[in-house]
Amino acid sequence: MLGDRALSAVAPLDLTSEYTVRSYSADEGLPQNSVTRITQTPDGYLWFSTYRGLVRFDGVRFTVFDRSNTRVIDGQDSVNTFFKDSKGRITVEFKGGQLVWVEGGVLSRGQGYGLPLQTTSIRGESPDGRRYFENPATGIWYVESENGRFEETRPIWGDGRSVVDLSSLHIQEGGIPWILQNGRWVQVELKDLVPAVPRPGGRIQRLVQAVSGRDGGIWLVSDWGIHRLKEGQWVVQVPFPEPVGDSSAGLEDRDGNLWIGSWVQGLWRYSPNGEIQRFALDRGAASEPVRSLFEDSEGNIWMGMEGSGLHRLRRRAFRSAKTGSKGSPSITRSVAEDSKGRVWFAGQEGVSVVDPGVPGSPRLILEQALSRSVLCDSTGVLWAGTYSGLIFRLDPEGLRLPEPLQLEERRNVAVLFEEPGVGLWVGR
Question: What's this model's pTM, rounded to 2 decimal places?
């Protein structure tokens, strides 16, 4: 999808129109209301980093690990960052430089095995599966060897000025770019990629987020818009309708949606159909800073906020449809689905239809007050019964067929049922 589209400003939409939102805060067991990173280990536990400890969630309760209850944490409780490596281990860096490893649900000290006892910072895992650390005080770097010990190594910073080819670009969890230079994996900064990212009619000024795609592609988010690189080709270049500002998190979910969290503009979603939407949890809030995004093994989207807790987004299993006209309330008595996936409703005003492929509210097809039952039979004919004993027939396109059937005694047609090879049964 290429081109420079003119888009109007995006008013934030209500998340609850598509998702059920479950919110958690210090009242539900978090140590405080800022969640900066989220991941999930192979045993199914969710892990969160906060300014007051490392947190594990089992789906019901939060367990906080800090210096008051965890022997291996003897420095500050605030977590700088963490990342999960390709083996499912979490490396946690606390403020002050202490490292803690989480493996198999067990916390252990990260220092040792060749790493210095002084302040040590995580630098990530290269695409070939090697963890890197740096001692900022000495400038010495360490790499994990095959026997699990750490050895001194050269810094892994790449030459950002020479980045012209993005064919080897790899995005680590947390949005850190790696690239091959002279046969060695090195890290670069987002700003180093700017010269290699085109946009229709010009060049971008800066990049604010990088996300690894599920199919091997790469998403890059710039001050201009959204770019997707796949197999050496820019397959998506779509402008933002308004500036998104600095981005703090990004995620591609299992449905192919790209989620972008920003400090000022809240939550954005780019859908496979090319639509860009902005969502809000609280429309009255001046800003909703999103710090972290993660999709768990069940397909739930988790959103960690700066100062306003944690939210779980679960796609709604039901879509609501209002069948009353002009905003008036209506009672639906019967629902049926036809072979084209359309849903038919019988209610106070008559028979309405919702077509998933056509936007908008339900269309009133048969205006017959106090419709009671509806059925789509195996031939595609729609049957509708009323309280007064009338049975209407409509063809697959919703056109009314000849005169309705009138039952004796004009009694309520409560149920319509088709018995294959026999005919239509009427319950009264």
Answer: 0.73
